[in-house]
Design goal:
seven-stranded mixed sheet; 198 residues; Rossmann fold; globular
Length: 198
Amino acid sequence: MVPQPAQYPALATPVLVLGAAYTGKSELAQKALDPKRRTLVIGTADMSEGLIALRVEELRRKRPAHWVHHDGQLDLAAYLRAHAQDYEQVLIDSINQWVANLVLTHAQKYSLDQLLPLCEREAFDLCAAVEETKQKTRIVLVSSEVGAGISPPKPVARLFRQLVSRINCRLAEHAEAVLLVSAGIPMLIKGEWPTLPQ
């Protein structure tokens, strides 16, 4: 079944969009939102990195001009709790960038053995925040699938992969709809496409 454009913003919330890098996840996530509604985009990328900043600016240009963007958020759960109620929709892009920043930030203070439970606690707190806010605010989350392929040779890279995969699983449990993007083609792997009025 090829979904109609109007079916995306009618998907039950929260919506989780997964896929490999540069397969169209962010563009698909935007389709799951109503362009006319008050929308907060919570960006998690490190904007000091030139190529990432260029990609974020490219995505911004594709979004409605009235959408509000806040980038570089590290305390994601607290930020969602504090601001979600002021908007009809929230887009979080992306979970994998957030986990990368968590690992890099905390790796300066903690050992790898300490990093895993610390970052997992923050990830599970985000899941709780999504549950608390989803009744009043439509939430769409974007995350990369990073578990395929060979195991990374570096311990920190292995930790990152493990954390992203675990939080993706946890978020998928809480999501009402999960979209997987492969080669730019979306597949609904959890939930149902809504029936549109004739």
